[in-house]
Amino acid sequence: MPVVVFVLAVAVFAQGTSEFMVSGLLEQIAGDVGISLGAAGLLTSLFAAGMVLGAPVMATAAGRMPVRYSVTAFLALFCAAHVVGAVATGFGVLLVTRVVAAVANAGFLAVTLAALPRLVGPASVGRATSVVISGVTVACIAGVPAGTLLGQAWGWRSTFWAVAVISAAALVPVWFMLGRDDRPDPQALSMRHEWSVVRLPEVQVAVTAGILVNAATFAGFTYLGTITNDAAANGRWVPLGLALFGLGSFAGVTIAGRYSDTHRQRIITTGTIALLAVWLLAALTAHLLIGVMIMAVVTGAVAFGVGSTLIATIVRTAAPTAPRIAGALATTAFNVGAVLGPITAGLVVDLTARPATAWLCSAVFTSAAVAVVLMAQRRQQASEKAHVNAR
Fold it and tell me: Which end of the chain is less packed: N or C, by CB atoms within 10 Å?
């Protein structure tokens, strides 16, 4: 695996830390800039919205640029947004920096994922995708807790500075390692033609399943801390529960990445069915602390293992027809799920007044993903049978 893939994963680690770190800093930020806790929550929701909208827009805008220029430009913009955010004194400026950082993050991830087939070859896309996505899981394990501790010790601005420093440290190696031979093909099809890839049934299945699986993942993860707190009757176990989920997710993307290039369909089909059983079991054992701890690892591993394989599938399926926007489709699917899951789970939890129902919500999302995957597999088998009979 080229070293540049691991460097790109470091940048994704910084971006993943930024995406989730605000949840542990909301009270500090609200008190410092003089706003309500609810208003401070906009820093998280607008970041997610910026990720969803930024991926297709930025991938289209950067479509004719060499990967080297677009990736470093997005990373530099992301870094600059955190420097401005760290010195911002007003909430309006801070809010703008979060939106800018989200758009830059989305553009970086979209272009990076789209470039993987060229960087590592089509046969290693699954493994390379797992390495890049592992940056997000390591952010959950180490980056977010470290950012929270840093914020508690030195103030929330120090966390923004830390993200800026890590991003800046990745800039130079990314620039030099990507090289100069990544200029787009002058004979490449128009961006409008590339977007027609969304009409392909294989792409539609991968994107839909990716949205549903990631919606399930983030619906469950959002309420993991609250579920842990209820099961333990105190908050001391919450950090451990979150860390175990992060460790499980890292293990999941690592193991799935090792085999997804050769057993991709089996991981998606079997893994999605297994994930449904995992979420149901997690909901049934949510009243027991030991059950929550065990299932935090298991749900993280299976959810991110299947999710990262689906992201790699989107890139692999779309890349031959739409090499410049394949990463945007994968990034959008990931982040639509990250927005849809918590919103839906929040409505269910408010209605039932039981945080554990968030995991039942995850099971419902996953059951829909199972239906999508199995129906697509049945259609493919029917098509192959018809082709054989036609001979």
Answer: C
C-alpha distance from residue 343 to each of 37, 94, 300, 338, 369 (Å): 18, 23, 19, 9, 18
Both tokens of 34, joined, read 């003089």
Compute the distance between CA of residue 301 and CA of residue 307 in angstroms, rounded to an integer. 10
Q: What is the reported pTM?
A: 0.80
CA angle 115, 333, 160 (to 5 degrees): 75
The Cα-based distances of 308 to 125, 259, 286, 296, 302 in angstroms read 11, 12, 26, 18, 10
Scanning the chain, the segments in alpha helix (DSSP H) are: 3-21, 26-33, 37-40, 42-61, 67-87, 91-120, 125-138, 144-154, 156-178, 191-195, 201-222, 224-232, 238-284, 289-318, 326-352, 357-390
Cα 316–chain centre separation: 17
| Radius of gyration (C-alpha) of the chain in whole angstroms | 20
Q: How many CB atoms lie within 10 A of CB 61?
A: 13
CA pair distance 180, 195, nearest whole angstrom: 26
Please count the other Cβ atoms lying within 10 Å of the Cβ belonging to residue 351.
9
Render pLDDT for 173-196 as a digit per residue (tens, 0 to 9).
988 888 665 555 544 556 667 777
What does the mean pLDDT of the chain come to?
84
Residue 83 CA to residue 162 CA, distance in Å, equals 10
Which residue type, as a one-letter code, is found at position 174? V
Report the C-alpha gap between 110 and 10 in whole angstroms: 16
CA angle 235–237–243, rounded 5-degree value: 125
User: Minimal CA–CA distance to 18: which of 128, 74, 102?
Assistant: 102
